[in-house]
């Protein structure tokens, strides 16, 4: 009774509910037969042995067997449900695993593309800065520095541009001063 009472407290619906209702009817018949059996056992006389044998052969098994068969059907039904749930969970697991792998591949691809873009951007900026510095190191102050980036390399190029402008001013001042000295020297030598 304890196991049966625990079972009927669970959520039962559909075909399982019908099987349970049929099993309850058969359980009541089986309990009635068991009670009758107990009465025969309690008599303890010579006719009770023959009654017991007769009862067991004709009535007891015919009332208990259908209940056991119904319980077997309930067990099989629940096993079938459990197997379906197992297969469904297997399919869900496989689908989830595939989706996770696809999402990871997409995420890694996006990360790789972003890294390539960043590396290319930094490489171009460094290459341009290197070519500007190379021209300046050869004395070519006519180089025009174009900078549109606002990163560290852009800041470096802006500072180089300011340095070139200052150097042009200093060179212009030196040329004017040298020209003035040359003119003064020519005037002194002509007098």
Biggest sheet layout: none
Order of helices and strands: HHHH
What is the averaged pLDDT score?
87
Distance between the termini: 139 Å
Shape descriptor reads rod-shaped
Could you walk me through the main structural features you see in this protein, from its secondary elements to its overall organization?
It is rod-shaped and about 170 Å long. It has helices spanning 2-8, 15-43, 46-137, 152-190. It is mainly alpha-helical and 191 residues long. Helix content is 87%, strand content 0%. The protein has 4 helices and no strands. The mean pLDDT is 87.
Tag the structure with descriptive keywords.
mainly alpha, 4 helices, 191 residues
Compact overview of the structure:
Helices cover 87% and strands 0% of the residues. The chain contains four helices and no strands. The model has no long low-confidence stretch (mean pLDDT 87).
Layout of helices and strands:
Elements (H helix, E strand, L loop, with lengths): L1 H7 L6 H29 L2 H92 L14 H39 L1
Helix pairs in contact: 2-3, 3-4
């Amino acid at each position: 009774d304890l196991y049966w009472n625990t079972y009927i407290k669970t959520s039962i619906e559909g075909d399982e509910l019908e099987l349970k209702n049929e099993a309850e009817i058969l359980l009541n018949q089986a309990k009635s037969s068991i009670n009758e059996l107990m009465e025969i056992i309690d008599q303890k006389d010579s006719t009770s042995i023959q009654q017991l044998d007769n009862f067991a052969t004709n009535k007891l098994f015919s009332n208990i067997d259908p209940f056991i068969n119904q319980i077997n059907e309930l067990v099989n039904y629940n096993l079938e449900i459990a197997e379906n749930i197992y297969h469904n969970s297997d399919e869900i697991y496989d689908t989830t695993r595939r989706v996770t792998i696809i999402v990871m591949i997409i995420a890694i691809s996006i990360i790789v593309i972003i890294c390539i873009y960043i590396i290319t951007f930094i490489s171009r900026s460094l290459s341009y800065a290197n070519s500007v510095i190379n021209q300046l190191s050869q004395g070519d102050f006519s180089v025009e520095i174009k900078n549109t980036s606002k990163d560290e390399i852009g800041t470096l190029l802006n500072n180089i541009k300011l340095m070139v402008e200052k150097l042009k001013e200093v060179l212009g001042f030196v040329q004017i001063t040298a020209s003035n000295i040359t003119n003064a020297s020519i005037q002194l030598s002509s007098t």
